[in-house]
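> example.struct
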């Protein structure tokens, strides 16, 4: 999750508007792993990816190629970005729940490990 978990944003607000910060412990987790998936209800997934890149996290939307990292890298150097974070928006993608995305992702990996972080347990369950 992004709002009120990884970032101080609330209710789907753009992290590019106002003064927002990231949770440094969760950023460390994001940058320490080969692949991290942020699944959010917010429709501002592009803003989220840009915000993360501005804070040194190698982030892009699902389906974007690496050229977006070169164009928007911090200080113009994509090599300075850490991690491999993909941002998915269930609103923008017309999906039912975060659980739908996570289950599909874990199923496609064959053998995968998942670590779930959210500010509300209801966000992690499929109704």
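> example.seq
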């Amino acid at each position: 999750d992004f709002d009120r978990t990884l970032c101080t944003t609330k209710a789907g607000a753009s992290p590019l508007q106002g003064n927002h910060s990231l949770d440094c412990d969760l950023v460390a987790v994001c940058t320490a792993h080969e692949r991290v998936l942020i699944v959010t209800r917010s429709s501002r997934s592009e803003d989220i990816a840009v915000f993360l890149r501005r804070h040194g996290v190698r982030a892009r939307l699902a389906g974007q190629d690496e050229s977006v990292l070169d164009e928007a890298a911090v200080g113009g150097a994509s090599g300075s970005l850490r991690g491999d974070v993909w941002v998915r928006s269930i609103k923008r993608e017309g999906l039912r729940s975060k659980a739908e995305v996570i289950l599909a992702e874990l199923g496609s990996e064959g053998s995968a490990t998942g670590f779930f972080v959210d500010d509300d347990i209801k966000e992690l369950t499929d109704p």
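> remarks
The first helix runs from residue 24 to 32.
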